[in-house]
Amino acid sequence: MTLVATAHERGITTLTMDAPAKRNALSARLVDELADGLSGCAGDPSVRAVVLSHTGTTFCAGADLKEPPNPYTFVALMRQIVAHPKPVVARVTGHVRAGGLGLLGACDIVIASSDSDFAFTEVRIGVAPAVISMPLLPRMAPRAAARHYLTGETFGAAEALTDGLITEVADDVDTALAPLLDALRRGSPQGLAESKKLLNARVLETFEQYAEDLVQRSASLFATAEAREGMAAFVERRDAAWVR
């Protein structure tokens, strides 16, 4: 059974994360399957754009704490989306947490339903949104990023739009996607690829400069006693020891 379903229609390939029982958490296997799907799209001349979608009520809950991907592999996936020659559009109709926000930051366009919500939950388990900062901080409003990184609060789609995290809010995401995908079908492969290079040059520079440091920083944080307590509290559905 695959964790990523693939469908193709009129130049658009949809990669659907299909692990709803685990809230599409980023396991090693899910990350590998997403990378494989994206690789196939990159070399397929029939693909004009890629839609990243999901089943269930959660787009992505962040890292799978029981079967996490190698951090270098997850960084490579985000970079692959940013550097992909085809536009990658995220279709969000639900909750997005932690590492799932890194996927949104890597995508070129994000359409989210009006009832979607978002949270940078890392600070509440004793770590930080380190590696996902690479695609996110170049795109988000600095003051908004500061609030969300430091508080871990849940916020809605309207605020995510204002903050630069998403592109559009819609009551019906598929209705909103239809004209956008038609517009992408009209783009030439070369025109789309070269336009992406212009748009994402600064984001790719961030990966080149900071990936190694941020992977190491993330690994060191997860190895601390404070993070172990935070993750245990999360699994046990209780407050961490530091909560006052």
TrEMBL record:
SUPFAM superfamilies: ClpP/crotonase
InterPro entries: ClpP/crotonase-like_dom_sf, Enoyl-CoA_hydra/iso, Enoyl-CoA_hydra_C, Enoyl-CoA_Hydratase/Isomerase
Coiled coil location: none
One Pfam family in the UniProt entry: ECH_1
Family note: Belongs to the enoyl-CoA hydratase/isomerase family.
PANTHER family xrefs: ENOYL-COA HYDRATASE (PTHR42964), POLYKETIDE BIOSYNTHESIS ENOYL-COA HYDRATASE PKSH-RELATED (PTHR42964:SF1)
Protein name, per record: Enoyl-CoA hydratase
Species per Swiss-Prot/TrEMBL record: Streptomyces camponoticapitis
